[in-house]
Amino acid sequence: MSTSVDTERTPTAPAAPDAPAAAGGSRDIADWRPEDEEFWRRHGARIARRNLVFSVLSEHIGFSVWSLWSVLVLFLGPEYGIDAAGKFTLTALPTVLGAVLRLPYAYAVARFGGRNWTVFSALLLLVPTVLAGLVLQPGVSYGTLLAVACVAGVGGGNFASSMANVNALYPQRLKGWALGVNAGGGNLGVPAVQLVGLLVLATAGTAHPRLVPLVYVPLIVLAALGAALRMDNLTQLKNDRGALREVVREPHSWVMSLLYIGTFGSFIGFGFAFGQVLQVQFPEHFDTPVKAAYLTFLGPLLGSLTRPVGGRLADRWGGAAVTLWTFVAMAGGTAAVLAASHHGSLPLFLVGFVALFALSGVGNGSTYTMIPAVFQARARAAIAAGADVPGAERDARRRASALIGLAGAIGAFGGVLVNVAFRQAFLSSRSGDAAYWTFLGAYAVCATVTWAVYLRRGGGRRDAVA
Question: Is the pLDDT of residue 297 over 90?
Answer without folding.
Answer: no
